[in-house]
Design brief:
The structure is a single chain. The chain has 748 residues and is of the alpha+beta class. The protein is 64% helix and 8% strand. The protein contains 26 helices and 11 strands. A 5-stranded antiparallel sheet has the order 2-3-1-5-4, sandwiched between helices. β8 and β9 (477-484) form a beta hairpin. It is elongated.
Length: 748
């Protein structure tokens, strides 16, 4: 190719990112090293809660009770076990009282109470061999965790005639945070080598296989630095680190796969290095940008929710998506400029080929794609059958979700051997009234003792109330402890919350407790969910329209993406709520799903589905612009991207499954659920539904009213070459040229 041709094919962005490739890579290395320094210790600054709505009634009530009645909100429990001896034995009682007195003298501890001081039956086990010392650690999650780290080793273990175990909400959260950090490290150690092996199988070349991993590592380290900065201003959930790792590797691999694949394709067609990079950036690079925007929008929608658990995933997701795209569009071209044809070096599959011949530019997912072409033609010949059967199958897989029950995360998220979980289980099973599972009713304002007593009688008369304690009086406020019948977060307890809030009183009342937090969380999500879905759908429709110029394709993309998630949601209920496979997967079913998890999984899985959808549609659109042949364009698009999308989905699924090996149930559910959604989308929706539906719709697929066509001509972008109008006029000749080029670049 002549220098004139090359210069014409190379855009300004390509010239910018390839002008000084060594300097660009050196700068990236320096920035990455700074990111390692800036992001160090980020996990220690993260929280393990965030499921509560900060503006909810239960949150307000909890804050007032913590301030005015610290005894009412213990978050640290010492389980004192007398063994075969009763807790009323003089020696056991003396040691228990001594532990409580010693704990009350610890800095940062307030509201210490014990069975031996109060003689409350709720603090003594049914068999009389265990009792509780309860206290409150002051401060936020980070400060409470530091206090727990300091005092837990002192109190845990044998003290004279008793054995002490440490539990309570703060211990559960702290242990969950530690386990997540350990599991994330293990997941990375599993995912990185397996991913590298899969990339070598895809590319053949070890050099080409290392490029996506390098992009992913840059994105992950950069995101950790961003999250470290965000923790200076707001709370961030430790769970978000799992998303950082998964998306950092998954999307970086997706983007690098498509860019490197297109670059090798251009080299195989005879282009010189800079021109090949120019075509790659103008086509696949543009699609990567669109994909990153669609994924980022899906994740950004979680910002509308008040819970910092969900907002944290938006922070992490937006950062990692944009950094993965930036690394792919800036660093990758610089690396390709230096490598040139050497990107095919170290062909590790050469010994397996006949005669040891190399196949530059090919790869497991980059071959001729004839199998995908034949498969696409088969699907389109039987389009009605494939469309109906696939749709019905996906809908049936999602049926279990109709029976979903929403709950709240508790200690059963932890492995069965975790100390804080063991303590909580012994409290649930052995203590009357399940300490910590009741509701607190705060009464603010001045009233006579008679009015307080009358209100207690009205509470006792409500359906679903097992016992009422109090009121405990304070300065201008009081509170009642209400124990609901049945499960502490069951439907009966949730109904009781609403009854308590509706009960007239001579003073201002508000309700908190585990069931109240759940009710408020569900209400907050239900209130904001339409906004989140609306943002995702509207922006997705706009972006896909700008990519394709069609009104119908964006609608099709949204509907098919939603169908691809049905299997994930059905499996979540069937496995994690109903407890099927709990033995194999090593978790304890609580009979419900944590309220925020389906929202999180929807936003992440929808974004990843759009990622694959954009890559397929962009290649179909490119060929349709060039040939005007609808069915040929669908076959071409699947031929060129089917193997790559499948390979990318398998690699991302491996990363998500590695995340899913976590010992924390919510992380396990997130990893395995999204892995299933990704595989279903790539192997069922993109392979079967998309070609079948596009065949049934025919050329009307590309329809748009005249004003919108004009808008797209002016502002739209696509992966195809700029001469859109000329291609349409080329007719069959252009189609022939396209098919000839297809044969050449495919290596057929």
């Amino acid at each position: 190719m002549s220098d004139i041709d090359s210069s014409e094919r190379v855009g300004g962005w390509t010239r910018f990112v390839t002008a000084r490739p060594r300097l660009a890579l050196l700068a990236a290395l320096v920035v990455t090293a700074l990111a390692v320094f800036a992001g160090s210790g980020v996990a220690d600054r993260m929280g393990s809660g965030g499921w509560e709505a900060p503006d909810a009634e239960s949150t307000y009530t909890t804050q007032v009770l913590e301030r005015e009645f610290p005894d009412s909100q213990p978050n640290l429990l010492l389980l004192v076990d007398g063994g075969d001896v009763s807790v009323d034995d003089p020696a056991v009682a003396a040691e228990g009282a001594r532990l409580a007195e010693r704990l009350s003298a610890e800095p940062g501890i307030t509201g210490v109470g014990s069975y031996w001081r109060t003689k409350s039956p709720a603090l003594r086990s049914g068999d009389g061999h265990e009792a509780i010392v309860a206290a409150r650690i002051e401060g936020d999650e980070k400060g409470a965790g530091e206090v727990l780290d300091r005092i837990a080793p002192v109190y845990r273990g044998t003290h004279g005639p008793v054995e002490v175990s440490v539990g309570g909400p703060v211990a559960v959260r702290h242990e969950m945070q530690s386990i997540i950090q350990e599991d994330l490290l293990r997941a990375e150690l599993i995912a990185l080598p397996v991913t590298l092996v899969l990339l070598v199988m895809v590319f053949g070349s070890a050099i080409a296989a290392l490029l996506p991993l390098a992009v992913g590592i840059v994105a992950i380290l950069g995101t950790n630095a961003v999250l470290r900065g965000i923790t200076e201003f707001t709370d961030v959930s430790v769970f978000a680190q799992n998303l950082t790792t998964a998306l950092g590797l998954g999307l970086a691999i997706d983007y690098a796969l498509f860019l490197v694949r297109r670059f090798r394709e251009e080299l195989a067609a005879g282009a010189e290095t800079r021109a090949a990079i120019g075509t790659t950036m103008r086509t696949a690079g543009r699609t990567v940008l669109f994909s990153a925007l669609t994924v980022a929008v899906s994740l950004a929608a979680m910002m509308v929710f008040p819970q910092y658990f969900l907002r944290s995933f938006a922070y992490a997701g937006i950062a990692v998506v944009l950094l993965a795209a930036a690394a792919a569009l800036i660093l990758l071209p610089a690396a390709l400029m230096l490598l040139g044809p050497r990107v095919n070096s170290l062909d590790l599959r050469r010994p397996m080929r006949r005669g040891g011949q190399a196949a530059p530019g090919a790869g497991a997912a980059e071959g001729s794609g004839r199998g995908w072409a034949r498969f696409s033609e088969l699907v389109m010949r039987r389009a009605p059958v494939f469309a109906v059967v696939t749709t019905v199958g996906l809908v049936l897989l999602g049926v279990p979700f109709l029976g979903v029950k929403f709950g709240t995360a508790d200690d059963r998220q932890l492995p069965a051997t975790a100390e804080s979980r063991v303590v909580q289980e012994r409290l649930r099973d052995g203590f009357p009234g399940s300490p910590g599972g009741g509701l607190d009713v705060l009464a603010e304002g001045t009233a006579s003792p008679r009015r307080y007593a009358e209100f207690r009688e009205r509470i006792e008369a409500l359906p679903g109330v097992a016992r009422v304690d109090g009121p405990v009086m304070g300065d201008g406020a009081a509170y009642y402890e209400v124990l609901p019948e049945g499960e502490s977060v069951g439907q009966g307890a949730q109904d009781l919350v609403r009854l308590l809030r509706a009960e007239p009183a001579p003073f201002d009342t508000s309700v908190t407790g585990t069931a109240a937090v759940l009710v408020d969380s569900k209400d907050a999500i239900a209130d904001r969910l339409p906004w989140a879905v609306g943002i995702i759908v509207v922006v997705t429709l706009l972006l896909v329209f700008l990519l394709t110029g069609s009104v119908l394709i964006p609608l099709q993309a949204v509907v098919l993406n939603a169908l691809s998630l049905t299997a994930m949601f059905g499996a979540v209920v069937w496995v994690f709520q109903d407890g099927n496979l709990s033995g194999i997967l090593s978790f304890t079913s609580t009979g419900d799903i944590e309220t925020t998890l389906p929202v999180l999984m929807f936003c992440v899985a929808f974004g990843l589905s759009m990622d694959y959808g954009v890559f397929l549609l962009s290649r179909i659109k490119e060929e349709y612009d060039r040939t005007g042949d609808h069915e040929h364009s669908v076959t071409f698009g699947l031929r060129r991207t089917g193997g790559l999308i499948t390979a990318a989905a398998v690699i991302l699924a491996v990363v998500m499954v590695a995340i899913g090996t976590s010992r924390v149930t919510n992380t396990k559910m997130l990893g395995l659920g999204i892995a299933l959604a990704v595989l279903m989308d790539a192997m069922v929706v993109r392979s079967l539904l998309v070609p079948a539906v596009m065949k049934l719709m025919g050329r009307i697929t590309w329809w748009a009213p005249a004003p919108l066509r004009a808008f797209h001509e002016r502002f739209g972008l696509s992966e195809g070459e700029p001469a859109r109008g000329e291609a349409r006029g080329a007719g069959e000749t252009s189609g022939a040229d396209g098919r000839e080029r297809d044969t050449i670049t495919a290596g057929a």
